[in-house]
Amino acid sequence: MAVVLNVEHLQKSYRKKTILKDINFQINDSSIVALIGANGAGKTTLINTILKLTPKDTGKVQFSVDQWKQITGVMMQDNLVLNRINVEEIINLTRSYFQDPLSYENLIRISGLKEVENTFVSQLSGGQKRRLSFALALAGDPKILFLDEPTVGMDSIARNDFWKTVASLKQNGKSIFITSHYLKELENVADHFLILQNKNIAFDGSIEQLRKISGKVLVEFDSKLSCKTFTSFSSIISINQTNHHFQIITNDANELLSKLNPFLKAISNLSVNQSSLDTLLLNYQEKNND
Ligand SMILES: Nc1ncnc2c1ncn2[C@@H]1O[C@H](COP(=O)(O)OP(=O)(O)OP(=O)(O)O)[C@@H](O)[C@H]1O
Questions:
Q1: pLDDT in tens, 15-38
Q2: Residue whose CB lies within 8 A of the most ligand 1 atoms, among 36, 43, 47, 147, for a mutation test
Q3: What is the CATH number of domain 3-211?
Q4: Rounded to two decimals, what is the model's pTM?
Q5: pLDDT tens per residue, range 224-251
Q6: How far, in Å, CA of 180 to CA of 182, rounded?
């Protein structure tokens, strides 16, 4: 795997107020990295600083090539406000900036905006503007794509198409750096998570690693075995028995399931309910709050 972006000791403040203290992380090719954190944590500021839309105080931001603008695509939270330019014109104008752009036909297909290609950008609906912003971000066939709250305002069909496109971009070796408060959507697509908290990257890893740190798993089953059979197992947080129904909360589902394995013949209706990314983030934030 090759590193496409390296960020070291990045610091950013707005008028003496420190927003980002000491940010360090890397992005590899063929990966989807999700930046998550509370409102105001500094996610947009981090993207803006990486892309030099706002100056950093100190630190290093290094892309894999010097001509970094040619390999980056950007979809920020704010949509374009342009009055006298239509969809086709803005797509082609953006394409003209790049050495090796995607074709217009490809971009209009990805955005699903063929029917409104002659409409002024200012007359598009909110969701159509988001789709157009996505097409513009892809215009240069970027190696690394920055997406800040991309699906806000999109309907469910557009969202579905959007995530499918993102997943296929990754398959083609692209890297996607994404922020979103729709954690359920991120949970399905991202393979790496960065939690921005207390002005730093407080967590950098996979969802499995996050589960180990702050996850609780509910394992339920029916059994006529005695409760004592299970109470000695390690990694159990609590155990609740109602008649022959057991509810066990653990922080290590694999460990618990391997302990249950010898008893499987005496167990039925086994289910394992992992914490959602929402819950994992909340647990993590509570534990690590300053
Ligand atoms: N141009 C600016 N001048 C001064 N302060 C700013 C500016 N932009 C952002 N801030 C402040 O920086 C902090 C981080 O804001 P930022 O928009 O980066 O957070 P965020 O994590 O993207 O939030 P959200 O999830 O709500 O989009 C906030 O306290 C915000 O008020």
A1: 989 999 999 999 999 999 999 999
A2: 43
A3: 3.40.50.300
A4: 0.86
A5: 999 999 988 887 888 999 999 999 999 8
A6: 5
